[in-house]
Amino acid sequence: MKWITEDDARFYGHWTNRNGTDSVQYYNEQITNRRKKYNFEKSEKYLPFIEQLNDKGYYKAENFFDKSLLLELKEETENLIREDKHIKRRDKNNIVVDQPFLYTKSASKIAFHDSLIQIASMYFNCLPAIGTFNLRKSMVNDLPLDGTNLFHRDFNSTVKILKFFFYLNDVNKDNGPFTYVEESNRKMFEGWWLQHRWRDEELAMIYGKDKIKHLTANFGDMLMARTNGWHKGQKLVTGERLMLTVNFVIHPELAGGRPQTEEKRFQIKKEDYHNLSDHKKPVADFLIKV
């Protein structure tokens, strides 16, 4: 297999011109501006996280996060679902909470946690900001495989995006683990752009079945991934999965190759923004303050 790697414009796909210079140039300009504008903190204890992220595309930190804070978010989410308040979407597959930073007290505490900011800063080698975030409950259903249950790549950023995952219940292979094709963060194949969604067997033939990793984890573990690689949410066959995801980027997330308009961006309360310490306020640069 002759791989397409990160030094080839074809690796980046839809948001490049024929030579690949436009999207890469945009990314480089944005990250250079943030490096000039903001200082950031490095923590060498997270170096193994970054090394595996760059090598395999994902990392699982076991028993990493404050369980009391995760439990608080779980209870808040279950209450919203039960009372049918501030629900963005409800179908047979998922229940999605609308604007989690507005309608829960704990989602923003998790997303702006020092550990996340330090890890993301080491990954980007600058102080990034939060783009989108998602709080959803996924259930067993009889729908055919579709959407995020099939392998896909994220194009919210032209070059790099880092996503954190917090399971709010234990997740095994049967109740919907985040699933990643190891090393696809740095290796694509000729023709990958011919379709947006790919099935397990298709990518297993290309990368090898052993490269498809079902990232099971327990309550309190933290997952992170470079979602420019192939990934999906495994379809549930039993139980349920409650999960918060948080994206870190160095420019406003893209839609159709352009920065999202303000009405499409995620929101944070002005009060919560002003209560952030000065070094955390830039992490909210791409959020709308309401």
Short structural summary:
By secondary structure, this protein is of the alpha+beta class. Helices cover 27% and strands 22% of the residues.
What does this structure look like?
- The longest helix has 17 residues, at 21-37.
- The chain has a seven-stranded antiparallel beta sheet. A three-stranded antiparallel beta sheet has the order 7-6-9. A two-stranded antiparallel ribbon has the order 11-12.
- The termini are far apart.
- With 290 residues, it is of the alpha+beta class.
- It has helices spanning 21-37, 47-56, 67-83, 100-103, 107-111, 114-124, 200-207, 270-275; strands at residues 58-61, 87-90, 94-97, 129-139, 162-167, 178-181, 212-215, 222-226, 231-233, 240-249, 254-255, 258-259, 267-268, 288-289.
- It has one domain: Jelly Rolls (Sandwich), CATH 2.60.120.
- Helix content is 27%, strand content 22%.
Count of DSSP strands: 14
Q: Let me know the largest β-sheet.
A: 7 strands, antiparallel
Percentage beta strand: 15-25%
Query: What CATH architecture label applies?
Result: Sandwich
The residue fraction in helices comes out at 25-40%
**Highest CATH level, the class:** Mainly Beta
What is the global morphology? globular
Topology, pairings included?
Layout: H1 21-37, H2 47-56, E1 58-61, H3 67-83, E2 87-90, E3 94-97, H4 100-103, H5 107-111, H6 114-124, E4 129-139, E5 162-167, E6 178-181, H7 200-207, E7 212-215, E8 222-226, E9 231-233, E10 240-249, E11 254-255, E12 258-259, E13 267-268, H8 270-275, E14 288-289
Parallel strand pairs: 13-14
Antiparallel strand pairs: 1-8, 2-3, 3-4, 4-10, 5-8, 5-10, 6-7, 6-9, 11-12
